[in-house]
Design a protein that fits this description.
Helix 1 crosses helix 6, helix 2 packs across helix 6 and helix 8 packs across helix 10. 66% of the residues lie in helices and 8% in strands. The chain is mainly alpha-helical and 313 residues long. The chain contains 14 helices and 5 strands.
Length: 313
């Protein structure tokens, strides 16, 4: 059993991805426990009054002395307790080189959470046929667009995402959050303290990358200027200025409208009467003449009644 096999066994047995630091820490703990066991065994032997070196035959004594002079093995507890993460990386590279040379169907890949065994892609059809109920997750176009905006511009607010896409992203955003691909990364130092969104480790594992810098054209696409909520607000401010200018113009139009209304009223006063209006005037005049004649007749009738009364007396 050599150190390469030990590292391979640790990564293979781990249910979750492990980092090189985790592997080195496990080896150091094992070495510490082994050294503590040796010290304890030596103490027990001393208490029993046994001198292990004196009880050894002459040949074994010389062999033991030679063994002490030789360099300790790489799995010796004294060596393992000083192992570093850098050495683990070198061992993992050696494991992958052996796998590639022998054509093994799996290899070690480092994800955001650490190292893990993965089968090679050319074996995917056979593995899928073993688990036909497990289907690869597919996302809609809007979901992928929203995911890409968050990935390349994180942390980002929902308002900025909507400024880029030009539509509401509430439903799509909730979906990719439920899938664990996106998480809330805090609040922005903006009015209202809006939430900031960023990708999760699940996103990195899903797309097979170690960090965001591994995204295609990451540096270039992050420098591309995109619409933002602030620019949108500035644009709305300019629109408000234009509207205010339009409001002044509206005042002018209102003044002009008032002038036009005055002119219309003046035109209405100067306008000659129509035939219908003349007929109405004639009818009113006739009614006035009729009412005047009716009044005269009433007065005459009253005078006749008075005269008649005097005669009767």
């Amino acid at each position: 059993m050599d150190l390469v096999q030990i590292v391979e066994a640790i990564i293979f047995a781990s249910p979750d991805p492990v980092t090189a630091q985790d592997v080195a820490r496990a080896l150091r703990r094992t070495a510490k426990a082994a050294l503590a066991a040796e010290v304890e065994a030596a103490a027990l032997a001393a208490e029993a009054g046994e001198d292990t070196e004196e009880t050894l035959p002459p040949k074994k004594k010389s062999r033991a002395k030679k063994k002490k002079v030789q360099e300790p093995a790489e799995t010796d507890p004294q060596v393992l307790q000083k192992i570093t993460a850098k050495q683990i990386y070198e061992i993992i590279d050696e494991i992958n080189e052996t796998y590639n040379a022998t054509g093994r169907p799996m290899h070690l890949l480092e994800g955001p959470s650490g190292w893990r065994f993965y089968t090679r892609t050319n074996y995917a059809p056979y593995i899928r046929s073993l688990m036909p109920e497990v289907k690869p997750e597919r996302f809609s176009g809007p979901a992928m667009e929203t995911l890409a905006i968050i990935a390349y511009r994180q942390p980002i607010t929902k308002a900025d995402i909507e400024a880029v896409r030009g539509v509401s992203v509430d439903g799509v955003l909730n979906k990719i959050i439920d899938k664990g691909l996106v998480k809330i990364g805090g609040r922005a130092e903006l009015p209202g303290k809006p939430l900031l969104y960023e990708t999760s480790e699940t996103f990195l594992e899903h797309f097979g990358i170690k960090n965001i810098d591994d995204l295609p054209n990451s540096g270039e696409l992050r420098r591309v200027e995109l619409p933002s909520a602030e620019l949108k607000l500035e644009g709305e401010g300019e629109a408000d200025e234009q509207l205010s200018l339009g409001a002044h113009a509206g005042d002018n139009e209102k003044n002009t409208g008032e002038d036009l209304a005055g002119k219309l009223e003046a035109d209405e006063e100067d306008k000659p009467e129509t035939d219908a209006g003349a007929e109405d005037g004639d009818a009113i005049g006739d009614q006035e003449e009729i009412s005047e004649s009716s009044d005269v007749e009433t007065v005459e009738a009253e005078e006749d009644l008075v005269k008649q009364g005097e005669e009767e007396e």
